Amino acid sequence: MAVYNPKSLRAEEFINDGEILETLEYAEKNKNNIELIDEILNKARPQKTESGTVCKGLTHREASVLLACDIPEKVEEIYRIAEEIKLSFYGNRIVMFAPLYLSNYCVNGCLYCPYHLKNKHIARKKLTQEEVRQEVIALQDMGHKRLAIEAGEDPVNNPIEYILDCIQTIYSVNHKNGAIRRVNVNIAATTVENYRKLKEAGIGTYILFQETYHKESYLKLHPTGPKHDYDYHTEAMDRAMEGGIDDVGLGVLFGLELYKYEFAGLIMHAEHLEAVHGVGPHTISVPRVKHADDIDPDVFDNSIPDEMFEKIIACIRLAVPYTGMIISTRESEEVRGKVLNLGISQISGASRTSVGGYTEEERPHDSEQFDVSDQRTLDEVVRWLMENGHIPSFCTACYREGRTGDRFMSLCKNGQILNCCHPNALMTLTEYLVDYASEETKKIGFELIGKELTKIPKDKVREIAVQNIEDIKASNRRDFRF
Ligand code: SF4
Ligand code: SF4
């Protein structure tokens, strides 16, 4: 039997089934142990030190105890601390991005995804480079600066060369004042050599959802195709890091397996990356199974209600305070509104989850990967965020300044990154308002920026930010950053 070892490179040792089961048992046994729960909450709370605010995070066992605990006042405390952490490290900023679907050809048999090979009635499509260009122009015209590209796994239709060509095309398009400044990539697990090629192509984060950490379920949910290989999939982030990609994004598809199991697995995966590579995941995504062509979420009997979903997000925030958290338009406006305060730091806006969805006249429901709950335009989402006290940010500065991997994490951990994030958010929001926003959004936005500028503590930084904002308003100069 495999023994738990977070430093191992073998999936069955760092995501160890025995350790997860023991963790769940420990959590269940201690879910009313007030003394222990208080101790864990104290550990999670942000601490003020001479060098700024710091957070210790939690182990998978500690975080699992909090997730299991349902004493109302302790759960309230979890939410309060999650909010405190969110405000300490991310302030009221929310980074915006959009997914871009390149191809829905796929040789895998994932039971929860309409792109599975056996779905014969879904329209299959792969964008040509000219179509990628058109999609990017449409995204730039909305105001997006950061994309996550998505493609099914198909070595014939979507080989790595195709993905690399698409990345090159995306970075090459500059429509009016538009530019895509960071391309994150969500493609199937691949080889170290291919990860190296992605790194050389200048990608931001490599994102790969584990779907489920439960091996037995994983094998059943992925009955055919290369994705069936649980170990190869689970060890992908180690290969990505070996290939030089230092920002990786984890995620599970909540609803496939018992959420407590997934939660423990996810935190263990983060611990593993930290133990082996010295840097944890850059982001964690929290998708839930949703309705789509050929897919009925009710057949997955582990679906989780909104309240539990919110608690999971809060507990992840406590466990890995320095990891960005992403939520997509799978979730409704209401759910998105709540979880933004609990630790989400990035959201997608005006997403199309079909191939070619940004340039089609009508919304093409027939090739979507999942139904989009939040159907608002980017302008509406931006305005809604500001009306709710958040600053929408189109910042991509870290990646472009080479602040990735452990360099990024150390700035994050000593709080210095805040000196960059806040002014960068205000400058990129100004770009958005000047170039793309409706009059109403502009009005709210400029008022907000005026107020937020006064909160920049360092005089010099504030002066530069004010000057740059004036430049953006008065000219076509763009892309200022700290
Ligand atoms: S989840 Fe990904 S790998 Fe699985 S069928 Fe869908 S596109 Fe293919
Ligand atoms: S400065 Fe870096 S961490 Fe902050 S919002 Fe920009 S890219 Fe993200």
CATH domain class of the largest domain = Alpha Beta
CATH fold-type name of the largest domain? TIM Barrel
Distance between the termini: 51 Å
Largest sheet: 9 strands, parallel
Radius of gyration: 22 Å
Give the overall pLDDT as a whole number: 94
Question: What oligomerization state is this entry in?
Answer: single chain
- The gross shape turns out to be globular
Secondary-structure-based class equals alpha/beta
Helix percentage range = 40-55%
Percent strand equals: 5-15%
CATH H level, superfamily name of the largest domain: Aldolase class I
GO molecular function: 4 iron, 4 sulfur cluster binding; catalytic activity; metal ion binding
InterPro entries: Aldolase_TIM (IPR013785), BATS_dom (IPR010722), FeFe-hyd_mat_HydG (IPR024007), rSAM (IPR007197), rSAM_sf (IPR058240), ThiH/NoCL/HydG-like (IPR034428)
Keywords: 4Fe-4S, Iron, Iron-sulfur, Metal-binding, S-adenosyl-L-methionine
Domain Biotin and thiamin synthesis-associated: 285-392
